[in-house]
Structures are given as C-alpha cells and as structure tokens.
C-alpha cells in the first residue's frame, strides 16, 4: 500500500482506533464554501466500504474510498466550469450523463433541490451524496428490472427493504 496513503490514514485516525469513522473523515474533507463536508455525506461515504455496518472503515476501505473520492472530485471539477465550487442544474445534468445516467430536467431539478444549496447551486459533498444514493438505488432497481425496460413491479416489503437498505 502507498506509504503516503498510510500516513494520511494515520493522520485522519485521530483516536488511533485503526479505523476511520464519519466524524474523523469529516475533519479532513473540505466542501465548496470552505466548510466541512456534511455529516450525512461522510456517513454515506463510510457506508460504501463498511459491509459489516460497523460505522467505520479500515485501512483497505479507506484506500478504496480515497480512489472514489478523487474520481468524484474529478467529475465535479470538470463540470464546474467557472470553478465556483458549485455546479448548476445544466452542469449536474451533464455530469450525470457522463456517468451513464439519463435524467429528465424535472428529476435533475429535484436533485438540485434535495442536495443543493439554493441559489448557490450544488456543492461537492451534495454531489457525492447524490451519486452514492443514485448508484445504490439504481443497482437495486436493475436487479428487479430483469428485462431492462426501465419499469419494475415491486411488492410493499421489497420496496421497504430497498429504501431501508439505502438509509
Ligand atoms: Ca478512528
């Protein structure tokens, strides 16, 4: 493993537990407007590499997350053309398209409303949260959409299971 990444891990692991929790992650990730990443974004990010739901990740999970974060940051920066630290609705639509999602203008507007900061636009931690949740639920949807028609029939309990798994 990259020694630089190991020393970064040790710097983030403030309580020396050998694992990174959302609070520790939050301390080192800076969002668009100079504030920290939202707690929710950090929790979602940890959850990606925490199969046992322990609430924290080890060195290996951290290394995988690090690669993901850099990928998201790259995508975000590509579409943040004026480098304001925020992307607008049109840019979000293009960013989603670059990741293979084709969303209607109405749905992109919903994402802006849900993850954005009003007139400022969508900050990077909101963008990452949206990416994680969309990816997660798309996976769940595709498993049921066996004919790739873009439509599924779902039972009440399957629906609840899908939603609660994403929380
Ligand atoms: Ca720790």
Describe this structure in words.
α3 (39-48) crosses α7. A two-stranded antiparallel ribbon has the order 1-2. The chain has a single domain (3-166), classed as Recoverin, domain 1 (Orthogonal Bundle). The two termini are 31 Å apart. Helix content is 60%, strand content 2%. The mean pLDDT is 92. The chain has 8 helices and 2 strands; from the N terminus they run ααααβααβαα. The protein is mainly α and 167 residues long. The structure holds calcium ion. Calcium ion binds at residues 13, 15, 17, 19-21, 24. Calcium ion binds next to loops.
Short description:
The chain is about 60% helix and about 0% strand. The protein is mainly α and about 170 residues long. The protein has a single domain (about 5-165), classed as Recoverin, domain 1.
- CATH class, please? Mainly Alpha
Q: Report Rg.
A: 17 Å
Q: What is the N-to-C succession of helices and strands?
A: HHHHEHHEHH
CATH architecture name: Orthogonal Bundle
Number of strands: 2
| Overall tally of domains | 1
Number of H/I helices? 8
Q: Enumerate the spans where pLDDT stays under 50 for 5 or more consecutive residues.
A: none
CATH fold-level assignment: Recoverin, domain 1
Which small compounds were modeled alongside the protein? calcium ion
Report the sheet-strand fraction.
under 5%
Helix content: 55-70%
Overall pLDDT level: 92
Strand order of the largest sheet: 1-2
Name of the CATH superfamily: EF-hand
Silhouette: globular
Going by helix content, strand content and strand pairing, the class is mainly alpha
Sheet with the most strands, sense and barrel status: 2 strands, antiparallel
Terminal Cα span: 31 Å
């Amino acid at each position: 493993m990259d020694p630089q990444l190991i020393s970064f891990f040790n710097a983030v692991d403030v309580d020396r537990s050998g694992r990174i929790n959302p609070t520790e992650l939050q301390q080192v990730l800076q969002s668009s407007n100079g504030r920290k990443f939202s707690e929710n974004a950090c929790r979602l990010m940890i959850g990606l590499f925490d199969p046992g739901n322990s609430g924290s990740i080890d060195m290996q999970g951290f290394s995988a997350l690090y690669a993901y974060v850099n990928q998201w940051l790259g995508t975000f920066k590509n579409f943040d053309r004026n480098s304001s630290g925020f992307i607008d609705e049109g840019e979000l639509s293009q960013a989603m398209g670059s990741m293979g999602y084709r969303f209607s203008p109405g749905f992109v507007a919903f994402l802006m409303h849900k993850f954005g900061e009003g007139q400022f636009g969508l900050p990077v931690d909101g963008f990452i949260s949206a990416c994680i949740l969309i990816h997660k639920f798309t996976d769940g949807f595709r498993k049921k959409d066996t004919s790739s028609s873009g439509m599924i029939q779902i039972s009440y309990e399957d629906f609840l299971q899908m939603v609660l798994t994403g929380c």
